[in-house]
Amino acid sequence: MTFTRFSAPRLTRAAISRLGLLLVMFSGAAHAHVDTDSVGGFAAGFLHPLTGLDHFTAMVAVGLWGVILGRPATWLLPVVFPMIMALGSVVGIVGLALPGIEIGIALSALVLGAFIVWRVALPLWLACLVVSVFAICHGYAHGAELPLASDPFAFAMGFMLATGSLHAAGIGVGVVAERFHQGVLLRVLGAVTALLGVYFLMEALA
Description:
Strand content: under 5%
Number of helices: 8
Oligomer: single chain
Order of helices and strands: HHHHHHHH
Structural class: mainly alpha
Largest sheet: none
Helix content: over 70%
C-alpha cells in the first residue's frame, strides 16, 4: 500500500455550508429504494441503484478511485464490481442469510471515500478484492428484491446497467476533477463520499 502526501484543501465557510446542506438534503433519501411491494421489471431494476443514495454513492466512488489507481484498474474495477455483484444477488435470491449487509454497504462508501481522499494506491489484485467484497453486499441487497419482481431477469439487467453507468459517470467526473487544482476537487468528492459513509454507518448501526 502506498500513500501520496496529503495536503488538506482549504474550504471556505460557504463551501462547508453547502456540503452540510447537501448532506441534509440527501439524508432523507439515503435508503430510498423502489417500493418492494411493487417491484417491476427493467425500469425498476435500473432505478434501484439510482434511488438509493448508499448504492449510488459507492458505485460512483468505484469510478473515482479507479481514476486515482490508473489503468488497468480504471476499467477493470467497473467490470469486476458488476460481475461480483451479480453473484451477490444470487445469494440474496436464494435467501442465504448474510449478516452485516447494510454495514458492508455503508463501509463501502466510507472506505472508498477515504481511499480517494488519501489517494490510496493498492495493488491491482487487492483493489479488485476490496471492491468485490463491497459488490457482494450491494448485490445481496438487490437480489433480496428480485423474487418480488414481475420480471426478475429484466430487473437484474436493469440494475447491472445502472451500476455500469454509475461507474462510468464516476470515471468521467474523476478525470475532470483530477485536473482541478492538482486533484483537490477529487479529494473533496472523496471527503463527501466518506462523510456520507459515516452517515450510512450510523443508520445501519442504529
